[in-house]
Specification:
- Keywords: ATP-binding, Ligase, Nucleotide-binding.
- It holds the Pfam family TTL.
- One of its GO terms (biological process) is microtubule cytoskeleton organization.
- The chain is α+β, with helices and mostly antiparallel strands.
- Among the domains are: 58-111 and 174-215 and 235-454, D-amino Acid Aminotransferase, Chain A, domain 1; 113-170, Dna Ligase, domain 1 (2-Layer Sandwich).
- 41% of the residues lie in helices and 16% in strands.
- It has helices at 3-19, 34-42, 67-71, 86-89, 91-104, 122-132, 225-228, 232-235, 258-267, 272-288, 291-301, 343-359, 364-375, 377-409, 427-440, 458-462, 477-487, 500-520, 525-528; strands at residues 24-30, 46-48, 58-61, 78-79, 115-118, 138-142, 152-154, 166-170, 177-178, 181-194, 197-209, 255-257, 313-321, 327-333, 414-418, 532-533.
- Strands 9, 10, 11, 12, 13, 14, 15 and 16 form an 8-stranded mixed sheet that branches.
- The longest helix has 33 residues, at 377-409.
- The protein is globular, with a radius of gyration of 25 Å.
- Mean pLDDT is 80; it is low at 459-531 and 536-542.
Length: 542
């Protein structure tokens, strides 16, 4: 770190000692993004940990993490990745999971283009190709690639290597156009917990445009990648690429702010609130498809972490709108780029990182608890085991409520997508995925699930809860458990185990309700058949 950073940290330490507030250390030596370091330098509550520091509070790393690395974390530490996220961030795994869900919930999971995984599904693809002929266009992507590498369009079977490890998607050939250009949307989604899922969508994102005016895919223009692809890594190489000099201008540049752009579309009369509601449901459904896997890996490494707060992750959801204004999920990125190449990048990505650090459930007592537990490990090992088994449900409930209120107070630019009271129906999706997951790994599966309805009870939402309500400054971890065990009676679990017959009824009811919900999200007829929107002037009609 330079001298300015050291002086800044010294000033922060002095201010926090005076105000008796905690200053949290974040380890940034495994990330290449300078904007993250800038956010930390500008923050009053964070300081960058030295390269040899082992008692940091948060580690930010650009690559995925292994189970061994996660297992070594102390309970007060956090890392910016979940194990098992590849279930939606690898193109083939995303396809596999969403196809499985679409088979059982066809109306809920119709937001992903028809996809085949090669070489395993090459025969299925050939059969489909023979039925549809060469009238359809397909886009081929490598399974584990990014930044548009290895992507090409085709209308011929001869162009596809049936032994290649890739996915083939039905190309969305009629996208919504803005001033004749194709575009997609990069949305930043924050996941801060897996049991329950804690999903947040940031208000800002990026709108990325192609360079050339869009034309329907023909054999003569299939190789015009600047027409069909919106990837910044590809289009920035073109001399025609235009950077936006004003991040608040929604009409100029091939990369623009989603927040500003969204407002411009609303001014043009498009039903963007309705579209955003569909996108929000799309996000929750996608992450729900891997919830049991995330929870399994998390609990395998840190079973006694009832706060469920040792991991967080920013995901990049790439969304495409077609000419009927239907949102399609293209892919999910586990490490979206935080490189800054324009003022738009600076504004959007700075806000995303800043709001992410603010919403993390940081509490200085966790460090104190860990130190005391470590020092008294041998003396209190048996006591801890007995008390945790008897009181873990009550402790988890209180931590969940406390964290729920903390997050609601520190949302910043984020919007909570899950858990919400009107989204508790997604427990049925998670219930199905949990049973399928447990069965696949040979565990006798149960239908019991915590719905977390207590988060939305009137007496809970009105009551101001914090970690202090169950763990005071002078109270140790074992003292709290002893007091809880002596003063509280054990509560029997009143949740009945559903039968398979009841489960099918729940699934059918949920499927039907989702179908009705989607039917209600209709659009004005004048927009349905209008693929091109001109927003260069506010007065221009759609």
């Amino acid at each position: 770190m330079d001298n300015n950073s050291i002086d800044s940290d010294n000033n922060k330490f002095a201010a926090h000692l005076k105000n008796k507030k905690a200053l949290y250390k974040i380890y940034l030596h495994n990330t290449r993004y300078d904007i993250i370091k800038k956010v930390v330098r500008d923050s009053e509550n964070w300081t960058e940990a030295s390269i040899n520091c082992n008692d940091w509070d948060v580690m930010w790393i650009d690559t995925s993490i292994c189970e061994e690395r996660f297992r070594k974390l102390k309970k007060f530490q956090k890392i910016n990745h979940f194990i098992g996220m590849r279930g939606i961030t690898r193109k083939d795994e995303l396809c596999k999971n969403l196809k499985k869900m679409r088979k059982h919930f066809p109306q809920c999971y119709n937001f992903f283009p028809m996809t085949w995984i090669l070489p395993n599904e090459v025969s299925d693809f050939k059969s489909y190709f023979k039925r549809k002929g060469s009238s359809k266009t397909y886009i081929v992507k490598l399974k584990n690639s990014c930044q548009g590498k290895g992507i090409y369009l085709t209308k011929s079977l001869d162009d596809i290597n049936k032994y290649e490890s890739c996915i083939i998607q039905k190309y969305i050939h009629k996208p919504l156009l803005i001033n004749g250009l194709k575009f997609d949307i990069r949305l930043y989604v924050l996941l801060t917990g897996c049991d329950p899922l804690r999903i947040f969508l940031h208000e800002d994102g990026l709108v990325r445009f192609s360079i050339e005016k869009y034309r329907l895919p023909k054999n003569k223009n299939l190789k015009h990648i600047n027409m069909h692809l919106t990837n910044f890594s590809i289009n920035k190489m073109s001399d025609k690429f235009e950077y936006s000099l004003n991040p608040d201008d929604a009409t100029i540049g091939h990369k623009r702010s989603w927040k500003v752009f969204l407002q411009k579309l609303k001014e043009q009369g498009l039903p963007m609130d309705c579209i955003m509601k569909k996108i929000e449901h799309l996000i929750v459904k996608t992450i729900s498809s891997i919830q049991p896997e995330l929870n399994h890996y998390y609990n395998s490494a840190h079973y006694s972490d009832y706060s469920n707060s040792m991991c967080f992750e920013i995901l990049g959801f790439d969304i495409l709108l077609d000419y009927k204004l239907k949102p399609w999920l293209l892919e999910v990125n586990h490490s979206p780029s935080f490189s800054v190449s324009s003022k738009v990048d600076q504004k959007v990505k700075y806000a995303v990182i800043k709001d992410t650090l603010n919403i993390l459930y940081m509490h200085s007592k966790y460090r104190q608890i860990y130190i005391q537990e470590y020092l008294n490990l041998h003396k209190f090992r048996k006591l801890y085991n007995d008390l945790l088994i008897q009181n873990k449900k009550e402790l988890k409930k209180k931590l969940t409520i406390s964290r729920f209120h903390y997050e609601n107070k520190n949302l910043g630019g984020y919007k909570r997508l899950y858990p919400l009271q009107d989204l508790l129906e997604y427990q049925n999706l998670i219930l199905f995925v949990s049973n399928t997951w447990n069965k696949s790994i040979g565990i006798p599966y149960t239908l019991k699930q915590d719905t977390y309805e207590y988060l939305f009870q009137t007496d809970v939402t009105k009551k101001k809860l914090s970690t202090d309500s169950f763990l005071s400054q002078n109270q140790t971890y074992e003292e709290y458990h002893t007091k809880t065990m002596l003063t509280k009676k054990s509560v029997k679990d009143k949740q009945n185990i559903l039968t398979n017959k009841n489960t099918m009824q729940v699934i059918q009811t949920f499927d039907s309700s989702q179908k009705d919900f989607q039917n209600n999200l209709h659009y004005t007829k004048m927009y349905v058949n209008r693929p091109n929107v001109n927003i260069s002037n506010c007065s221009t009609s759609c």
